[in-house]
Amino acid sequence: MSRLIVVSNRVAVPEANGKVTAGGLAVAVNAALKERSGVWFGWSGRITDVPSDRPAVTTRNRIKYAVIDLKDSDYQEYYNGFANRVLWPILHYRVDLAEFQRADLSGYIRVNRLFADHASRFIQPDDVIWVHDYHMMPLAKYLRERGHANRIGFFLHIPMPPPELIQTLPRHGEILGSLAHFDLVGFQTENDRDNFGRYLITRGGQVTSDPSVYEIAGRRVRIAVFPVGIETEAFARRARHAGRTDYVKSFRNSLGGRKLIIGVDRLDYSKGIPHRLEAYETLLRTSPEWHDKVTFAQITPKSRTEVPEYIEMDRFLSHKAGQINGAFGDVAWTPLRYVNRTYSRSALGGFYRAANVAMVTPLRDGMNLVAKEFVAAQDPADPGVLLLSQFAGAAAELSGGALMVNPHETEGMAAALKRALDMPLDERRERHERMMAVLRRNDIDQWAETFLEALVPPERTASPATVMQRSTLLGMGHGAGWQGVHGPDFL
User: Fold this and answer.
1) Is 42 in a helix, a strand, or coil?
2) Which one of the listed residues 157, 172, 181, 432 is annotated catalytic?
3) DSSP 13
4) DSSP line for 210-225
5) Range 4-228+444-473: architecture per CATH
6) What is the pLDDT of residues 368-420, one digit of tens each?
7) Among the options 132, 365, 432, 443, which is catalytic?
8) What is the pLDDT of residues 133-173, one digit of tens each?
9) Fewer CB within 10 A of the terminal residue: the chain, N end or C end?
10) Please, is 289 exposed, middle or buried when counting C-beta atoms within 10 Å of its C-beta (0-12, 13-18, 19+)?
11) Can 132 be counted among the known catalytic residues?
12) Under CATH, which architecture does the 233-441 domain have?
């Protein structure tokens, strides 16, 4: 079996005991690697004045974790600058918040070329390469320039807007247009896929006899939908166990028998948290019968604290929380608990299981795994209700069981929240069963397997003779003494 080389901005290196503390992307990548030998390559998260000229490598269970450090200028321009102050807002339909600087674009390109240089040191001709997310959009182009004819796939974890918005990005062809150098580009939803297909056409691309394949500039790229799942059964077990811990029991006891509404989001303008708090405020104002009978816990770890938009958002949310508690609370009841700290996935599983309602109401989101984790965490005998934004990627899969809302419509969200709190047990069970059936069919293992089968279909899996032939065509030997394009095969 060919090795799998995963490339992403950050790498979650497991602890010595094999425990993976991170969630999200780390869970997804480890699902792809657990049945294969391979390498996960990316940034260490460290900033140094003089980075090493080769990655630091850690091996855990047949998987090699290779990481590099970055200079401060690289971090500021590539990560803080272009990735998070240009690509992130544009891809989340917030062109008004994008702040383009030529130096940041240069830094983004420079770091992508740096990643390509380091990866070229250990990529072998029969390796399969899987690149993740908006930080690494041009990477396949730079790998192709370095002579790599490998199968290379890309998965975008966040939304893909329509071409009219993509084209607001200066030199968009250099960045998003470079995705055509991948063999397969995966998206969370059909809408994301179709938006990118229309963008390829504006770049001169043409649909082939296979409607999922586009031909552009002499290359063929397949675009398809692969909605990310979660480790459904494992997370359900985690939540059951967490619900029996003293910590979660103490949390439940602190509610004093009141119903619990929960929201869990990183501090970001795409998550719709201000709109959510206004909906809760509207519920309290229009439904006084719920006073002292419900508590809303909004867990919002801070992120990108040096970015002005995030600083202002944190200030607004803290002020709004104070307003709600001041207007409706009393000495024995705090209507809203607004918490800016990070909890373990086990603790969150326990919180989800204790909740009667989850508000997952982003203004725009690629998928939003909180929605899926909340569903998996529920007690099937007495499940909670999911309020889900129509603009979350998860809506395509969970609309049959969630209460769908428009996060821009405050009164509509408040009405849906009241309906969720009042929903009878039979309806809650029926909705939960429908959503759990979806989560079991498309769990994280199925997601990884489906993507990789599309990237390297069984009939296209190279035999040793084919690999040798391809190696010869590239002018490279293959075997124990193979030397990479730019250096030794040290992995």
Assistant:
1) strand
2) 157
3) P
4) STTEEEETTEEEEEEE
5) 3-Layer(aba) Sandwich (3.40)
6) 999 999 999 999 999 999 999 999 999 999 999 999 999 999 999 999 999 99
7) 365
8) 999 999 999 999 999 999 999 999 999 999 999 999 999 99
9) N
10) exposed
11) no
12) 3-Layer(aba) Sandwich (3.40)
Retrieve residue 90's tokens.
Answer: 């544009």
Query: E strands, 128-182, where?
Result: 128-132, 151-155
Q: Which residue is listed with tokens 């200028």? A: 73
Rounded to 5°, the CA angle 237-241-243 comes to 115
pLDDT tens digits for 48-74? 999 888 899 999 888 899 999 999 999
Please give the model's pTM, rounded to 2 decimal places.
0.91
Q: 172 an active-site residue?
A: no
Tokens of 330: 């009393």
Give 467's pLDDT tier (boundaries 50, 70, 90): very low
- In 133-210, beta strands by DSSP E: 151-155, 184-187, 206-207
Phi/psi at 471 (5° precision): -60, -40
Residue 374 has phi, psi (to 5 degrees) of -60, -45
Counted residue by residue, the chain has a size of 491
For 10, the enclosing helix (H) or strand (E) is strand 4-10
Q: In the chain, where does the domain assigned CATH 3.40.50.2000 lie? A: 4-228+444-473, 233-441
Q: What is the mean pLDDT of residues 459-480?
A: 38
Name the strand (E) or helix (H) holding 358.
strand 357-360
**Distance in angstroms between the alpha carbons of the first and the last residue of the chain:** 16
Burial 238-249 (b: 16+ CB within 10 A, else e): bbeebbeeeebe
Dig out the tokens for 124 from the structure.
């072998």
